Amino acid sequence: MTAAMLTLAVALAVINIIRIQAEVYSSFAHLERSLQAEQSLAKDIKDYIKQEKVRLEKLERAAEEYEQHSKAALANSESFMGNPINAYLFMKRFTTDWADLSHLLQEDHSYDLLANFEEIRNKGFLPQLVDLQGAAAALMRLQDTYNLNTSEIASGILQGVKRSPGLSAFDCFYFGKYAYNQSDYYHTLLWMQEALNRLPFEPDSPIDRITILDYLTFATFKQGNVRHALLLANEMLQIDPENERALQNKRYFLSNLEESDQPMTIENKRPHRGVRDEEYENYEKLCRGDSIKPFKTPKRTHKLTCSYETNKSPNLLLRPFKVEVLYHSPKIVMWHDVLSEVEMKKVKELATPRLNRATVHNPVTGKLEFAEYRVSKSVFLDSDIDPVVEVISQRIADITGLDMSTAEGLQVANYGMGGQYEPHFDFARRRETHAFSDAIGNRIATVLFYMTDVEAGGATVFPKLGVKVFPKKGSAAFWYNLRRSGIGDYRTRHAACPVLSGAKWVCNKWLHERGQELRRTCSTNPKE
Ligand SMILES: *[C@@H]1O[C@H](CO)[C@@H](O)[C@H](O)[C@H]1NC(C)=O
Ligand SMILES: *[C@@H]1O[C@H](CO)[C@@H](O)[C@H](O)[C@H]1NC(C)=O
């Protein structure tokens, strides 16, 4: 299209020359004026070409960025998109960045290209603005759970390891703005401050200092630090002495300060989200890998051990399994290397097309809806789908000595960015009388297989016991949910910590009471 425009420009120039020649015959007096017109035309064409070059260079850079990004991401798409910063940057490309790009294409009437793109977009393959906001929300949740330092996140560092490219001042501003929209002034303050810190290193940033300062002033005031807010308002006035909002704020802050005698530093306090009880705090601590004071002093005087076991099963005589005891009462153990690479690959393959798309909470409308980023997806695989499902079931029978005929199908779950499962019990409580039929009874035990090593986060934790299990590919956690009396063991309350970075695949099997009568003997002692 550049070529077409150029042809037209050249044609115009030729016509002009013909006109000049015509005038040459009628009046030499106008010759000079005509030659000047020619000169100015040449300049216009050159300017036009220059502008086009800039535009094309921008487009070329965008195309190259897209190409390189998709290449890197496709090489390992799951773990790539499992990084919250990568996910955010990817979504940004098709939302806020896209507006600029489509503008560049529109300028040149590249409607075919645009129409093509809109078609892909309408098919729902590409992230939307709600996904971008979801990514911002997920990142802030992770920031809280894992106590992440804002400037480290902005540098692409999660838990001390650089795992992605960094964020720009504008990205930090976007997070701050998102938090501000949610009236979350704690995060507004953190992210606006980070935007401000980054701005001096980015001369071409689309965001300016005074806009950031404006939000920062407000958030600082809202978080209770009036003195600091006043300093920020003054800083705005240094840049723009006429700034109406800054002048207003300054007056307001000054009158506020006269009334109270507030100290300079006040903590930027994280707001409580919903019920933040002791259990929730312990859950988050364990997720971070910290230890907690258990609620009751456990009988942890026994040594925690590792051993090879066969459980007298002929199938295991040649290949005994490795057991690590994680907790004694209730007993929680880890079986190591119980699933093979081939088995795990097969299970993921079987599950992938069948995974149910999870709904997510839309932070804007408050409704549950689908989003391109996912928290978790899962599916139950029955034994008849493939021999591998039966092989895994048989292995559990060999190891535990329990009856598998009343067990549920193999549940496979895939957790994405920020994917988590807050504290819960696996067994049905007394009031949930219709949860399971009498023919199978309650969920007596849980086997949870890990099918990936998770880069960061994603532990299974037991907040009442202080036990944390970090995913290890090919290993499985096992515990009984019921006491021998059949009563639910409330100490087994557990949770899946949010995935901080990487992909998390697990599969689990719930074993039921019926069929175990001779294998795990009952007791009338409710505590046993
Ligand atoms: C965050 O990390 C930066 C750089 O590592 C450090 O200078 C800063 O003090 C940290 N902030 C907090 C609140 O720990
Ligand atoms: C904040 O809210 C405004 C107004 O509703 C909206 O236009 C903007 O996209 C929101 N920004 C973010 C980052 O969520």
TrEMBL record:
<dbReference type="GO" id="GO:0031418">
    <property type="term" value="F:L-ascorbic acid binding"/>
</dbReference>
<dbReference type="GO" id="GO:0005506">
    <property type="term" value="F:iron ion binding"/>
</dbReference>
<keyword id="KW-0560">Oxidoreductase</keyword>
<dbReference type="InterPro" id="IPR013547">
    <property type="entry name" value="P4H_N"/>
</dbReference>
<dbReference type="Pfam" id="PF08336">
    <property type="entry name" value="P4Ha_N"/>
</dbReference>
<dbReference type="InterPro" id="IPR059068">
    <property type="entry name" value="TPR_P4H"/>
</dbReference>
<dbReference type="GO" id="GO:0004656">
    <property type="term" value="F:procollagen-proline 4-dioxygenase activity"/>
</dbReference>
<dbReference type="Pfam" id="PF23558">
    <property type="entry name" value="TPR_P4H"/>
</dbReference>
<keyword id="KW-0408">Iron</keyword>
<dbReference type="InterPro" id="IPR006620">
    <property type="entry name" value="Pro_4_hyd_alph"/>
</dbReference>
<keyword id="KW-0325">Glycoprotein</keyword>
<dbReference type="InterPro" id="IPR045054">
    <property type="entry name" value="P4HA-like"/>
</dbReference>
<protein>
    <recommendedName>
        <fullName>procollagen-proline 4-dioxygenase</fullName>
        <ecNumber>1.14.11.2</ecNumber>
    </recommendedName>
</protein>
<keyword id="KW-0847">Vitamin C</keyword>
<feature type="domain" description="Fe2OG dioxygenase">
    <location>
        <begin position="406"/>
        <end position="513"/>
    </location>
</feature>
<keyword id="KW-0256">Endoplasmic reticulum</keyword>
<dbReference type="Pfam" id="PF13640">
    <property type="entry name" value="2OG-FeII_Oxy_3"/>
</dbReference>
<keyword id="KW-0223">Dioxygenase</keyword>
<dbReference type="InterPro" id="IPR005123">
    <property type="entry name" value="Oxoglu/Fe-dep_dioxygenase_dom"/>
</dbReference>
<comment type="function">
    <text>Catalyzes the post-translational formation of 4-hydroxyproline in -Xaa-Pro-Gly- sequences in collagens and other proteins.</text>
</comment>
<keyword id="KW-0175">Coiled coil</keyword>
<dbReference type="GO" id="GO:0005788">
    <property type="term" value="C:endoplasmic reticulum lumen"/>
</dbReference>
<keyword id="KW-0732">Signal</keyword>
<comment type="similarity">
    <text>Belongs to the P4HA family.</text>
</comment>
<dbReference type="InterPro" id="IPR011990">
    <property type="entry name" value="TPR-like_helical_dom_sf"/>
</dbReference>
<dbReference type="InterPro" id="IPR044862">
    <property type="entry name" value="Pro_4_hyd_alph_FE2OG_OXY"/>
</dbReference>
<feature type="coiled-coil region">
    <location>
        <begin position="42"/>
        <end position="76"/>
    </location>
</feature>
<keyword id="KW-0479">Metal-binding</keyword>
<feature type="signal peptide">
    <location>
        <begin position="1"/>
        <end position="22"/>
    </location>
</feature>
